[in-house]
Design a protein that fits this description.
The complex is a heterodimer of chains A (220) and B (132). In chain A, 33% of the residues lie in helices and 25% in strands. Chain A has 7 helices and 10 strands. Chain B contains 5 helices and 6 strands; from the N terminus they run βαββαβαβαβα. Classes of the chains: A alpha/beta (220), B alpha/beta (132). Chains A and B meet through helix 4 and helix 5 of A and helix 3 and helix 4 of B.
Chain lengths: 220, 132
Amino acid sequence: MYIIIVGGGRVGYYLARALLNEGHEVLIIEKNATLCETINEEMGSVCLRGDGCEAATLADVGTGRADMLVAVTGDDEDNLVACQVAKYKFNVPRTVTRIRNPQNEKIFKKLGVDVIVSTTDIILEAIEKEVPTHPLTHLLTISDKGLGIVEVRIPPTSAAIGKLVKEISLPAGSKLALIIRKNRKPRIPDPNTIIREGDQIIALTTPELEEELRTTLTNA
Amino acid sequence: MKVVIMGCGRVGAQLAGLLDNDGHEVTILDTDAYSFRRLSPSFGGNALIGNGIDQEALKRAGIEKADVFVALTQGDNRNVMATQIAKHIFNVPRAICRIYDPLRNELYNTMDIETFSPTTIFAQLVKEKIES
């Protein structure tokens, strides 16, 4: 695949390396001359100095035949424009962008960007997961389907402790997928599984139902 | 009319003054309070600190009730993004955007927002002046 990366910062650099290792044709577009030089010295001539939001630059690098454009500069607005120019001027089939402001996810989706990666959200989720008292953690969002996979820990005060799975009225559309218990193999809960203190429950839910699921499983 | 202007540079400040004089309800946004020095002393509209690519700042500026949005910052991409937010998220009837880069201007002009490139316009103007 021919993949164009806009932005040769850390994300762009490591992404390019990974994609090159997988055997893809990769080109980085970076404004900063020093960054460009470093990349070219280390990886061979894969970096072009220029503005990846400019149609002229994108034309020069043959964006018309690119399979994918990935915008990973530090500025959300630059990433948006790079993706839109690629998509609407050069018909690039797949555009991917990194965003810093999580609020921009909806907007970018609406404005035609195919895949949006919110680095802020990812970092937050990773840290939340490490906070022991945090009752609900997002593990994965399946954005196209409006679904998410979350982890809920059963606190000692939870009213769900000692109940069978079938006795708990989960919000419709949520499903308990896995129970992880200390010193036991993870198991798929059946209706007669008993919820215990300290259980780590992996559940499938929608963003709207997350709060309801959390209260059902953790409230006293 | 209610007009929200993003960017209080020379053009933004001048436009704000003109519209205010004509009796329109003007709110002007800029990320730097120092920019508001460019507004004329008689300016009767609102001057707000905020970034026009931030939905919250736009809401504070009253974007939900605005008839016109104009993006006049130095950054083409910022202008393009803010104008699209105004048009497609807040459904502002008219969203106008300055884009210096003529190629980018061409592309976005076909995309539901009104754009103009001062580069092209000014070059044309000077050319006509020389040739007349």
